[in-house]
Amino acid sequence: MPQDRNSFTLKAIKEYGRSLLSFIRRRVKNDADAEDILQDVWYQLSSVVNSSPVEQTGAWLYRVARNKITDRYRKHSEWLLDDLLLNSADGDNENDTADLGTIMLSETNTPETEYLRNLFWEELFVALDELPLDQKQVFVWQELENQSFEEIARHTGVNINTLVSRKRYAVLHLRRRLKELYDDIANY
Questions:
Q1: Distance in angstroms (rounded) separating the CA atoms of residues 88 and 74
Q2: CA 23 to chain centre
Q3: SS3 46
Q4: Which DSSP category does 144 fall into?
């Protein structure tokens, strides 16, 4: 029986390994992250195969990979959410904003938390689209793709101080916009 499980896992790696790695690479910042995520997917496959058979292996692998990518961005985005939400509140609303941040970052998936997360991300991307392209790009590269200002400066040829200034304007705009969202939710 263990031989069957091992051969199943090896067959899946051989059949889906290259395309799955390519799928992950298109969605993460660097090859090291992609390889880490792929290794997590293979580990989860071997764990699941030991307890129950996997039907539709390809679909299962891609779903797990998407979940791992989302988890990685969610972990990176926790401090981004904290920064944008907590710093957008007035001093007397700080506890309410922390509660919203707790809901947004909660591990539980209730319809309410899922709705709030989706609403936040939709509003964030709408607000990003309102920015001048250079401000939007710096924010996305730095906050969502985790690139340093030095890396961005090398790629764009723009001075680091200019990049920092552009990001600052983007953050101020996003704080104003997320404050509106927070007020709407708090007054609901």
A1: 20
A2: 16
A3: helix
A4: I
User: In terms of DSSP H, where are the helices of the chain?
Assistant: 2-25, 31-51, 57-88, 94-105, 111-130, 133-139, 149-156, 160-186
Query: Helices 94-105 & 160-186, crossing angle to 10 degrees?
Result: 100
| Stated pTM of the model | 0.49
C-alpha 14/C-alpha 12 separation (Å) is 5
The pLDDT value recorded for residue 81 is 56
Q: How confident is the model over 70-128, as pLDDT tens digits? A: 777 665 555 555 555 545 444 444 444 444 555 555 556 677 767 777 777 788 888 88
Nearest residue to 103 via CA among 168, 182, 47: 182
Cβ(147)–Cβ(29) below 8 Å: yes
Sign of CA dihedral 136, 142, 147, 149: positive
What tokens appear for 100 in the block?
């919203």
Query: How many angstroms separate the Cα of 35 from the Cα of each of 26, 38, 64?
Result: 12, 5, 14
